[in-house]
Amino acid sequence: MYKIKAKIENKIDFLMEAIWLLIVFLVPIFFLRNLYNCFEVPKIILFRSLTEVLVFLYIIKLIFYGFPGWQYFKQRLKYFLPAIIFIFFVLFSSIFSKISWFSFFGGWERWLGSFSWLHFLLFSIIIFLNLSEKRLKRIIYIIFFSTILMVIYGILQFLGLGFLKWSYDISETRRIFSTTGQPNFLGSFLLLTLPVFLIVLKSRKKWLKFASVLGFILLLIALILTKSRGAILGFLAMILFFGFFYGWKHNKKISILVLVIIFLFVSFLVYSNLLMEKDLVLKNTFSSRIKSLSNLERVGKYRLMHWGVAFDLILKNPLGYGIATQRFFIPNYYIPEFAIYEAPNIFLDHFHNDLLDMLFSLGWLGFFSYLIFLGYIFILGLKFFFKNKKYSNTILLLLAGILGYLVSILFSFHITSALSVFWAYVAIIIFIIKKKNFKKNQFQFQKSAFKIIIAILLFILTTLVIWHFNGSLFLSSNSLYKANLFRVRGEVNKSIDYHNKAIVFSPNNPFFKLEFANSLYKFVKRLNYPKNNKEIKLHLVNTGINQLEAIPQNLRSVEYFIWMPQLLSEKCRITKKDQVCQRAEQAFKKSSLVVPRVALLYNDWCQLEIYKNDLVKAKIKCQKALDLYPDLGHPYLNKEHQQMVFNESFGAYNKLVQIYKKQDQPKKAIDIAKKMEYRINKAYEQGNSNLVYIYNLLYSLYDQIGNKEKADFYKDKINNFIKFNN
């Protein structure tokens, strides 16, 4: 009978271990192309679902094998107290946030709200409570093999042998992202997992030793191919940390040598920074990116500006705003200069600095709990390293990996792949250090009808939780992906059907309503405008407005304040009713308080004034928009961003030309058209399709004022352009 009971316990333990091994193996490499965010959304859905199953299995184990007593948990969980306090502040920040729903669930790019952070803590605790030396080694090996797959796929991407095509063109940037979706994310993850290759190297099996050496070399190659400056600094921090403390324990000369090498490298960075001042052309090569590390004024300006925003917001509210709420506050600080370093109208959802993100989100108390949690892990680990022989190098390597990762995200932020490994490390480190302090609890199998009923109810509850928080998000994300696919194809009805499905699956999620409204606006702008389409357009516009109005006021992000006035402006155009046009005007005024320096808003506002036939106000708004676009001649503005800025500002210039034409001021219209010609030649070396439009415009304007010589000049340009492009 005892053997049967033991077998049942072993099966539960086997399932639990299988789940956490699946998490550390699958989450980093997992992605689904049929979701709207094919990298981060599938990862967090998979991680949370598996963690919820893991919690279910552990509770089942407690139900049928007896609750071991509070003393059992008190004896073990006291070592997780700093982590528990940190997660408490994460949850606390969400409860008292003005945007509590968003803070609880997280931003729709990654869904790393307090709900997900709680999952990471539970995941780590359950591993810790059920760990053994054999299970520890299996976790290390699984992380090792998972990382190898990521590295190989990343290198294949660089060689052009990737089996999938991405919108991110590696052939141009020559930066790999593997299964993370972004080179900086991959760089941070590789730093975190690099130590396991050195740990596996100590294996007795020759094939594993060979695999670890080869894998380590490939990982370093992949790390270089990410060309991530944050990862480079993180790698240096790893070497400094490991070399210094290893040398301090075994040979202090090694520590001094490491410090000298780091000093020389920093001196090289400063020297290369001085050289870069003479050469404004930044190349996307690994050597160029290393040389530019110390040039924060140049390559780090975008982040520095956002860090300034973070400090300003933190000073205004030292108690914190709630986890993952940055996107509701950053847009108010948007300035035209941002478009020099990033595409226009990009609003960050993080400050790209982990410490500032935590300080902003959690306030000073929560921030200190985060530092105490991290400091506790390092102090615990280093004390163990200097006092013990067995596993001491393993602990130092894991700490080095964590440090390298933390340094790299001083220029980035946490992602699900890395956090799943990070929290596994936390469990492993605490287990190795404290495993001698307690004996394994002897569970005894106890079966009863009541416990079976509880288990069934718990199974139903777990299933409902997985469906409510993860299954619905999966189906909504898949529906949104299909809706966007049909939108691109111009299949309006199918796109609308899938947008509706996305909202049905996640009725309280504002993101899917925002995306539906945006698609409807694009349909209205794209459709031809015959009389029999007026009713269709009005229906689409009203549907979009209704979707936006259904979003609670405290969850109305920057997208709402861009898209609501756009939809109302189109409704003004369709109905020609003063009341509707006035409502659109009020929407623009309200949005200008949220994003006061966003050129796109004033560009659209100008269009509304044209619909209202108020040409004086239209000129003011168009000029305001043009004033908010960065100078195309800025030395740091690359060609890609030049073209983005031109394409958006082209609309404002064109509106001004049409306004002056309506006011019978052709000479002023010519001045604006000439500016358009200059800017397009600045942005495009060989011009683009808009150039022939400008030539036609100038031809007609010069012909209007009777300047035949200039009119013929532009007529020849039109013919030459057409001839050249054919």
Q: Your description of this structure?
A:
By secondary structure, the chain is mainly alpha-helical. Among the domains are: about 1-255 and about 360-435, no CATH class; about 615-725, Tetratricopeptide repeat domain (Serine Threonine Protein Phosphatase 5, Tetratricopeptide repeat, Alpha Horseshoe), CATH 1.25.40. It has 31 helices and no strands. The protein has helices at about 1-30, 40-65, 70-75, 80-95, 100-105, 115-130, 135-160, 170-175, 185-200, 205-225, 230-250, 250-275, 285-290, 295-300, 300-315, 340, 355-385, 390-410, 415-435, 450-490, 490-505, 510-525, 535-550, 560-575, 580-595, 600-610, 615-625, 640-660, 665-685, 690-705, 710-725. Helix 20 runs antiparallel to helix 21 and helix 27 packs antiparallel against helix 28. The longest helix has about 40 residues, at about 450-490. It is globular and about 95 Å long.
Spans where pLDDT lies below 50 across 5 or more residues:
none
Main sheet summary? none
> Would you tell me the overall average pLDDT?
88
How big is the Rg? Answer: 29 Å
Structural class: mainly alpha
Report the total helices: 31
Cα separation of the termini: 86 Å
Helix content: over 70%
Gross morphology: globular
Question: TL;DR of this structure?
Answer:
With 726 residues, this protein is mostly helical. It has 31 helices and no strands. α9 runs antiparallel to α10 (206-226) and α11 runs antiparallel to α12.
